[in-house]
Write a structure and sequence with these properties.
The structure holds two protein chains of two kinds. In chain A, strand 5, helix 5 and strand 6 form a beta-alpha-beta unit. Chain A is globular, with a radius of gyration of 19 Å. Chain A has seven helices and eight strands; from the N terminus they run βαβαβαβαβαβαβαβ. Chain A is an alpha/beta fold. In chain A, strands 3-2-1-4-5-6-7-8 form an eight-stranded mixed beta sheet, sandwiched between helices. In chain A, helix 1 packs parallel to helix 2 and helix 3 packs parallel to helix 4. Chain A has a single domain, classed as 3-Layer(aba) Sandwich (Rossmann fold), CATH 3.40.50.720. By secondary structure, chain B is an alpha/beta fold. Helix content of chain B is 38%, strand content 14%. Chain B has an eight-stranded mixed beta sheet with strand order 3-2-1-4-5-6-7-8, sandwiched between helices. In chain B, helix 3 links the parallel strand 2 and strand 3. The chains are: A alpha/beta, B alpha/beta. At the A-B interface, helix 4 and helix 5 of A face helix 5 and helix 6 of B.
């Protein structure tokens, strides 16, 4: 093993300007990957590129200002990455609008669902649930053609998906969680995998405003995302598909199997008995 | 006919049902009308909607039904429909968010020949999100203040089986229903103590509607028949379901009793998930 096991890999990371996205970018760059950083604001991106290059070396990072819900710009971001780096192997859908857009303090001050601004509710839904689908749609043909790839979607804890006061944040993440499981099934046999990675609790990013009064040290630190994301992007995770991993439970001191058992689970809520009924001819399928 | 309705369980209820032009929505509308409910029925297809309005008028009289051609994914259209219904009947008690774009929008046979997620037209994907999750939010956010005024009300969201939420080949259908399922829990929490409740009702498997096209080749009589929705829809819209909030009800199991036919909304069976440090127990 070299120090830079991801040398030769290229990752597209949305929401890379700050928080978890930026931290994952730095972590992957430090292991040798080249990074196309996607975010909305150019100045935020420029600062992030400087930090990622400090971690991975001059020229390893490229800023691509893009709105992930814009079809033309999403495609242009893919084209720009291929032009600059000759291709890409990894898509990390991290860009999201968090609870902080609905309330400064989602513990003490939770707006009711009939009180929230409808335009904001819709915007958060589309950025978080549609953006990743759009990015995956434009990225996946390239990954499948190469026969190796990763799609990593950042969702949230399963019970945060129905936390009140956060507008469409939770529901949008439930949609992305379900969609990741669909992606993983569609990708079987292609060499490309789709998995979920979450911090495992509220993280020390702008999604948790100071007004919450939380002790910042007690939050999941963004750096916790680095070891599991680097592992997911390595050849060692080639057989990992349709799983969700909790960064704060990821322990590199454990064996591979123990680590996966500790921090991993199937995507979505597959453990729950569905209580449904199926026509007889479906009963034999996995559906 | 009107005489029978006056003895019904829903004689004092005004109910709005989206996607009422056919399928489960039409069936529930007819069932509620037979119990004396006054109905605001919503659909995009005006012709089918008129047809259902005639059927309802034949049961409860022409005064008991208002057909409203509206697109739930268009906030102006959706809110106008809700306000119109509430003004017309002087109140609004129950909202069924039933309208949805199903798998046939993705492919003729989403089950036998499921398209891959990267082959989908992004516009179809976002259109499904618009109708299946954004629409119900706009409808509920507009309707609930009318219910709160009377201290009684129902929001009933039609989602799908938990494992259908991640079945491939159906575009945003499953994910959008997962979002609506989670959102129903949020609604239920926000409504606690108000007399208004939010619950989920599902057929409990693929139903014999246009959502399962003939091209699937599935024998129609093996599908859940839309009339399975009648009894649970009546119960949910009536005072009998007072106190039930944040639950999901499965029409196919209705005959086995409430315990068998119900579960909590979403996936709380999986327990506490988010790891919360001591300073932030919620």
């Amino acid at each position: 093993m070299t120090d830079r096991p991801l040398e030769g890999r290229t990752a597209i990371i949305t929401g890379a300007g700050r928080g978890l996205g930026k931290s994952m970018s730095e972590g992957l760059a430090a292991q040798g990957a080249r990074i196309a950083l996607i975010d909305l604001e150019e100045d935020v991106l420029a600062a992030a590129v400087a930090d990622v290059e400090a971690a991975g070396g001059q020229g390893c990072a490229l800023a691509i200002p893009t709105d992930v819900t814009d079809t033309d710009r999403a495609q242009a971001a893919i084209d720009r990455t291929i032009e600059a780096f000759g291709g890409f192997d990894i898509l990390i859908n991290d860009a999201a609008m968090g609870p902080q857009f609905f309330t400064d303090n989602f513990v003490a001050d939770t707006p009711k669902f009939w009180e929230v601004d409808p335009d904001l509710w819709y915007r958060v839904l589309t950025v978080n649930a549609y953006g990743p689908q759009l990015m995956a749609t434009v990225a996946t043909p390239h990954l499948v053609e190469r026969g190796w790839g990763r799609i990593i979607n950042v969702t949230t804890s399963l019970d945060t998906m129905y936390l009140k006061g956060c507008g469409s944040y939770g529901p949008s993440k439930a949609a992305l969680e379900a969609n990741t499981r669909i992606m993983s099934q569609d990708l079987v046999g292609t060499g490309v995998t789709a998995n979920v990675l979450i911090p495992g609790g509220p993280a020390n990013t702008r999604m948790i405003p100071e007004a919450t009064g939380f002790d910042r040290d007690e939050l999941v630190q963004p750096e916790a995302m680095r070891p599991p994301v680097c592992w997911l992007c390595s050849a060692d995770a080639d057989d990992i598909n349709g799983m969700r991993f909790i960064a704060s439970l990821w322990d590199e001191d454990l064996s591979r199997d123990e680590r996966i058992a500790m921090a991993g689970a199937p995507t979505a809520w597959a453990q729950i008995e569905a209580l449904g009924q199926r026509p007889r001819d479906w009963a034999q399928t996995d559906r | 006919m009107a005489e029978m309705a006056s003895n019904g369980k829903l004689t004092d209820k005004v109910v709005m049902i989206t996607g009422a032009g056919r399928g489960l929505g039409r069936e529930m509308a007819l069932a509620l009308a037979a119990e004396g409910a006054q109905l605001a029925i919503v659909d995009m297809d005006g012709e089918e909607l008129q047809q259902v309005a005639h059927e309802i008028a034949a049961i409860g009289g022409s005064e008991c039904v208002v057909p409203l051609g509206a697109d739930v994914s268009d906030p102006d259209s959706a809110t106008t429909a809700v306000h119109y219904a509430a003004n017309n009947f002087g109140r609004l008690d129950v909202l069924f968010n039933n309208a949805a774009i199903g798998p046939p929008a993705i492919a003729e046979d989403s089950f036998g020949k499921p398209p891959k997620f990267w082959e989908l037209n992004p516009h179809t994907f976002i259109r499904m999100i618009d109708v299946n999750i954004a629409g119900p939010q706009v409808m509920a956010a507009t309707a609930v203040p009318y219910m709160l005024k009377n201290g009684w009300g129902r929001v009933i969201n039609i989602t799908t089986a938990l494992d259908a939420m991640y079945a491939p080949g159906m575009g945003a259908y499953g994910p959008s229903k997962a979002a609506l399922e989670a959102h129903t829990v949020v609604m239920a929490k926000d409504l606690e103590g108000t007399g208004v409740t939010a619950n989920v009702l599902i057929p409990g498997g693929p139903a014999n509607t246009r959502m399962i096209p003939e091209a699937t080749g599935i024998p129609r009589d093996e599908l859940i028949q839309p009339d399975a929705m009648r009894a649970p829809a009546i119960w949910l819209a009536s005072n009998e379901s007072d106190g039930h909030n944040g639950e999901r009800f499965i029409a196919a199991h209705w005959d086995k009793g409430l315990e068998e036919a119900s579960a909590p909304c979403a996936w709380p069976q999986l327990g506490q998930q988010a790891i919360l440090p001591s300073s932030i127990r919620r």
